[in-house]
């Protein structure tokens, strides 16, 4: 595939996954209502049973797969484009480390994604498929986030997400050809804001549950 | 040139030819003036090597005033050394301190094979230009000024893109060895002007195809190229190339066999 198509696909799927993060983060934030997970589980029930959402879920899985595969292709080809590395490195003078490490950050996120879907999404959908009933997700969250190791792993996942978004949000617009002095400041502010707020809210979920602040 | 008193340790990449192994060789050098350009310092080193009966360091250079783009040196991990918006010949020894160790490497990328020492083969760029980085119609004699109205901001952008000297610092500095800043500048300078319109779509398609064919990496928008470019070519050009390429690909029609010619 032509290099520019690879960028465009990366940018489009990236923005699509960002839109998923908005929904995911919004619904999960309902636990902060501290009503024993009632509102959260009602929203979860809607998302897990509504046919339109379930069809969109297939699109989401495909979006994830394309973004991941395209990422690995980029990483592989780009590594091959410089077989012999420089002895002296001065990259920090001209670019940020996280923009140069999207492959690494993406791989960390993939490992987190495997852990995370194995905790919630896969067992829940499997249970729906076999018994027709959803799992009590709020209780499941409380159980999983009572383990210190899991809290640490989830917070590390959120930190990787922060760095990945900090470059990825803005980069997506550049890849789609949107680079204009009139709009660049707002893209930068929105990108940085989203990269901070979204992973922070996510990270607060295991932390608040671990300390028992969410009943 | 006044004799100076800077003492330096140079670590220079020495490589016999494309197929041999290269390595950094250490050369102490003394009596360097802070007013010397970096290339003059290499001249001094080479003179010493020749006097000692050793082989001088091969390096590219031509105009020595920042417009030819030949002096490709990767100095202390940065294309053209520590300063911004200059070529190696415009870098002066006052940018270093007495006693410094300076590592000098050639551009390193699969698409820029090393010919010898610090000299690399950048003909990949020529082959990309040959795929459409020009206007193939005869423009005839000189027209009246302002015969073709062009908005001032478009002229400015086109001229800024046209400032690219094809030095390859963008490729050398890019973590992915991507040539997108170079190619986008060559596409932009023509896409912005009326004279470039007839071949606008075919140009971007074939130049991008050739860029990939040469084995340059994929751009991931780190922005390092823009920082290290001696002519400060903007990343806006890469965004423009992305737009141009997508539009040209999506609107490309299948070739019709419609005869034509005289008749």
What's this entry about, in short?
The complex is a heterodimer of chains A (215) and B (263). Chain A has 215 residues and is mainly α.
Topology overview:
The complex is a heterodimer of chains A (215) and B (263).
Chain A: H1 3-28, H2 38-49, H3 51-80, H4 97-100, H5 102-119, H6 121-131, H7 137-144, H8 148-175, H9 184-210
Helix pairs in contact in A: 1-3, 1-8, 1-9, 5-8, 8-9
Chain B: E1 6-14, E2 23-32, H1 38-51, E3 74-75, E4 78-79, E5 101-105, E6 114-116, E7 119-120, H2 123-129, H3 152-162, H4 169-173, H5 180-191, H6 200-213, H7 224-228, H8 236-251
Distance between the termini of chain A: 51 Å
Give the neighbour order of strands across the main sheet of chain B: 2-1-5-3-4
Proportion of residues in helical segments of chain A: over 70%
Instruction: Classify the beta-strand content of chain B into a percent band.
Output: 5-15%
| Radius of gyration from the alpha-carbon trace of chain B, in angstroms | 22 Å
Number-wise, the strands of chain B total 7
């Amino acid at each position: 595939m032509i290099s520019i198509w690879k960028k465009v696909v990366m940018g489009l799927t990236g923005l699509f996954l960002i839109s998923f993060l908005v929904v995911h983060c919004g619904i999960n934030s309902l636990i902060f209502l501290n009503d024993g997970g009632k509102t959260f589980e009602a929203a979860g029930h809607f998302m897990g049973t509504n046919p339109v959402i379930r069809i969109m879920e297939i699109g989401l899985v495909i979006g994830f797969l394309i973004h991941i595969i395209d990422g690995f292709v980029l990483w592989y080809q780009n590594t091959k484009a410089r077989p012999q590395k420089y002895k002296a490195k001065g990259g920090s003078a001209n670019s940020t480390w996280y923009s140069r490490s999207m492959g690494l950050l993406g791989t960390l996120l993939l490992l987190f994604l495997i852990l995370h879907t194995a905790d919630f999404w896969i067992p829940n959908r499997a249970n729906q498929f076999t018994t027709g009933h959803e799992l009590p997700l709020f209780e499941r969250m409380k159980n999983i986030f009572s383990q210190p190791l899991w809290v640490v792993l989830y917070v590390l996942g959120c930190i990787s997400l922060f760095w990945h978004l900090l470059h990825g949000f803005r980069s997506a617009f550049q890849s789609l050809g949107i680079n204009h002095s009139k709009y660049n400041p707002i893209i930068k502010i929105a990108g940085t804001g989203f990269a901070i707020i979204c992973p922070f809210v996510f990270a607060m979920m295991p932390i608040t549950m671990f300390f028992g602040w969410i009943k | 040139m006044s004799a100076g008193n800077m003492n330096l340790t140079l670590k220079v990449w020495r490589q016999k030819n494309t197929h041999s192994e290269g390595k950094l060789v250490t050369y102490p050098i003394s009596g360097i003036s802070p007013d010397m350009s970096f290339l003059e310092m290499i001249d001094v080193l080479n003179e010493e090597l020749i006097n000692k009966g050793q082989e001088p360091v091969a390096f590219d250079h031509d105009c020595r005033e920042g417009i030819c783009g030949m002096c490709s040196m990767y100095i202390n991990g940065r294309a053209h050394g520590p300063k911004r918006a200059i070529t190696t010949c415009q870098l002066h020894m006052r940018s270093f301190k007495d006693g410094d160790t300076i590592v000098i490497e050639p551009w390193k990328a699969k698409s820029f094979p090393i010919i010898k020492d610090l000299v690399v083969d950048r003909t990949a760029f020529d082959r990309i230009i040959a795929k459409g980085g020009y206007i193939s119609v005869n423009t005839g004699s000189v027209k009246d000024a302002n015969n073709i109205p062009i908005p001032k901001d478009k002229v400015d952008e086109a001229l800024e893109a046209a400032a690219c000297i094809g030095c390859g610092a963008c490729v050398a500095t890019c973590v992915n060895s991507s040539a997108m800043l170079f190619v986008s500048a060559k596409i932009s300078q023509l896409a912005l002007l009326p004279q470039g319109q007839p071949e606008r779509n075919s140009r971007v398609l074939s130049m991008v195809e050739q860029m990939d064919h040469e084995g340059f990496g994929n751009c991931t928008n780190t922005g390092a190229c823009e920082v290290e470019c001696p002519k400060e070519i903007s990343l806006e050009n890469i965004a423009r190339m992305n737009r141009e390429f997508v539009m040209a690909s999506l609107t490309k029609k299948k070739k019709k066999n419609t005869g034509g010619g005289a008749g």
